[in-house]
What we know:
Layout: E1 6-11, H1 16-19, H2 24-37, E2 41-48, E3 51-58, E4 73-75, H3 80-93, H4 103-106, E5 112-113, E6 116-117, H5 123-127, H6 154-162, H7 178-192, H8 196-208, E7 231-234, E8 236-239, H9 250-253, E9 256-258, H10 259-270, H11 277-283, E10 300-303, E11 309-317, E12 320-326, E13 331-337, E14 339-340, H12 358-366
Parallel strand pairs: 7-14
Antiparallel strand pairs: 1-3, 2-3, 2-13, 4-9, 5-6, 7-8, 10-11, 11-12, 12-13
Helix pairs in contact: 2-12, 3-7, 3-11, 6-7
Amino acid sequence: MFAAGAAVFALAGPSAAASAAAHPVTQAAVDKYRAGNGAPGAEAVVREQDELWGVTSGTKVLGQNQPFGPDDQIRAGSLTKPFTAAMVLQLVAEGRVDLDASVETYLPGVVRGNGYDGNRISVRQLLNHTSGVADYLWLGGGLNPIEQLRPHTLAEVAGWGLAQPPLFEPGARYQYSNTNFILAGMIIEKVTGNTYDRELADRITTPLGLTKTYLPKPGDKTLPPGHARGYVGRYLYVDFTELIEPSVGLSGGGLVTSGADATRFFQALAAGEVVPPAQLAEMFQPAEGGPAYGYGLGVERFQLPCGGEAWGHYGLWPGYQSVAAATADGRAAFVAGNVINNLAGESGSVGGGGAVHRGVTVTEVLCDQG
């Protein structure tokens, strides 16, 4: 059923035969997305209640006829953030974390000096990017080629951001910063006494059956067999799949996942299966002073052209770009391409160069009722 140019796949459930019918709207959107970004390959995976279907365009391995499949893993980048936020909100529901308590409460002495005072930054402000903490992804930190040569800890990665002065006073405005979610990962570890990956398994991936989602071990740059290769460039490509040290991402952007797993997670999240209703309402509450499209606690809002809204997130990692979102009625979609030719558009930004933005594509896909 697969072909290098375009294909539709279907999986399991009583409607599998029906789902094998073509989805021309989604196919056209994914073909346009791949071409507009100069990607070797791209895919959309859609989950509607218990049915999974999708389309693929191009190839997951440059120079070979290997279309994407729903279980093919990619490096998810900031798609990690909703997983991290969900775990923090589970701890809130358990009475172990207070969203409006200070970061100092849980990480004494960590956010201090260089203009920072952890007593003045709340957990909520980390999760909705109103903390003012600088982003660690700069040339002297996470993007430094030297830092790709050895593994790192959450504390070390957070230190790269805290070595820069604050962007603004806590709560004054919104500015996306990956350091916020590294600190959130540290809170998870401090409160539970377990590693982030252990909590991820116990709280999310095992209960939901996400067999293709995990946090790579620091220093392990390999991916399991069957993954999509990731490239940087346009027309001329460099394979980045195993060049970047995975521990520069961690709780802010380090997960590996697949389309099938990502749609299952976001579907379950929107349905209240991951975070209890009271905390889910907080999660989906846009931050005051935040972007017009709406950013909640580790998730952002997507207005659908067919009406209504979805909640999800973008992901970027050298070699990969992705987005996933879900609606309250059980529909979830994941769109991914295996190239990065600029680092624009991490959260709500269309970027430049005439590229087709993946946020536009995922909303088109969510509106395709077949």
